[in-house]
Amino acid sequence: CILFLISFAALAIGLNLVPNLLLRSFDLPASQFSILIGAILLFTFSQGLFQLITAYYRGKLAFGAASSLHLLVMSALQLGILLVSSDVFLYIHKYSLISALIIVGLILLPWTKIKTKKVNIKLKIQRLIKFGLPRVPGELSLFGLEFIPIFAVSLFVGLKESGYIAMSFLLIKLVTVPFE
Description:
The protein has helices at 2-17, 19-26, 33-59, 63-84, 88-113, 118-132, 136-156, 159-176. By secondary structure, it is an all-alpha fold. Helix 1 runs antiparallel to helix 3 (33-59), helix 3 (33-59) runs parallel beside helix 5 and helix 7 packs antiparallel against helix 8. The longest helix has 27 residues, at 33-59. The two termini are 23 Å apart. The model has no long low-confidence stretch (mean pLDDT 76).
């Protein structure tokens, strides 16, 4: 969780360092920069929370809950919002906000039922860091496998083609969800 917050803060700072590159890649005027940053940060935050909660469920060997959440957030929610959204940024805002609310609710739910001692929390944090820290490079690589091609195509070819690639990645995710 701490690594997630640190990396999220680094992303927020990094995005603000390259405003012209972002605006040019999305073909937006400078007045739209705050909307673009908000969409990117909200989406990144909600996806980070999604990764945390699914890792928690997998760590507890609750694969049914992890798969159900995966189907809800990565498939049903995306398709439902896609049907009612007319604008890309509106879609990203709605999807990110709703998925973040669902996931925050799921994160807070166990804490309302379980009382743990500080000793147990320290031990659990150590176990989580031991388990999760080696996964960080792999997760970053996986993120890069999806993000870099879409971003590069939007920069060098165009937004329409970038949208086709993003949609194809989404369709691949939808098809592979039952096999995870």
